[in-house]
Amino acid sequence: MDSAAHNEIDLLLDKAKSSGRNEDLSALWKVVLSLPQWHFMTRQTATIEERKPFVGVLDGKPWAFVFTDRQRAQEYARTIPNGGFVDESGNVLVISTDTQKAIDYLLALAAQGVYGVRFNELNGWFSPIANLPAIINHVNKG
């Protein structure tokens, strides 16, 4: 993701947080949904085949952690001491996937009981996964 898109997401997020207006939140979602890929951090495991996107528990609810670029995923993973995300070389493995496949994956997680999705944790936003189809429909109409 180029830095212009990176900055645009930050600006849209700041605007949505400060205004609280639905139009500003819709503009943020529109850009995020148009990204070619979404990114997930994953714990280090013995084999790559065992690795899957991280789901963490906050306030007693399971959340999927999604990032709009690889760098943000790596930065967040490094903030979790002994989280198992950083290997001995200091690397963080990030799973990058086509945005539509990521959405399908999140909807499948919801069917397994995962409550919500947290975007760009540290300076981001969140939503119940159950709201994703309505968000997508709303953004696509606009």
CATH class: Alpha Beta
CATH superfamily: Uncharacterised protein PF11572, DUF3234
The CATH topology, please?
A: Trna Endonuclease, Chain: A, domain 1
Q: What portion of residues belong to β-strands?
A: 15-25%
Q: Ends: how far apart? A: 24 Å
- Which geometry do the CA atoms define? globular
* Share in helix: 40-55%
Radius of gyration: 15 Å
Number of domains: 1
How is the largest sheet built, in terms of strand order?
Answer: 2-3-5-6
**What's the β-strand tally?**
6
Count of helical segments? 5
Structural class: alpha+beta
- The mean pLDDT is 92
Low-confidence stretches: none
Major beta sheet, specifics? 4 strands, mixed
What is the ordering of alpha helices and beta strands? HHEEEHEHEEH
Description:
- By secondary structure, this protein is of the alpha+beta class.
- The protein has one domain: Uncharacterised protein PF11572, DUF3234 (Trna Endonuclease, Chain: A, domain 1, 3-Layer(aba) Sandwich), CATH 3.40.1350.90.
- The protein is 43% helix and 20% strand.
- It is built from 5 helices and 6 strands; from the N terminus they run ααβββαβαββα.
- The protein has a 4-stranded mixed sheet, covered by helices on one side. A two-stranded antiparallel sheet has the order 1-4.
- Strand 2 and strand 3 form a beta hairpin.
- Helix 1 packs antiparallel against helix 2 and helix 2 packs across helix 5.
- The chain is globular, with a radius of gyration of 15 Å.
- The two termini are 24 Å apart.
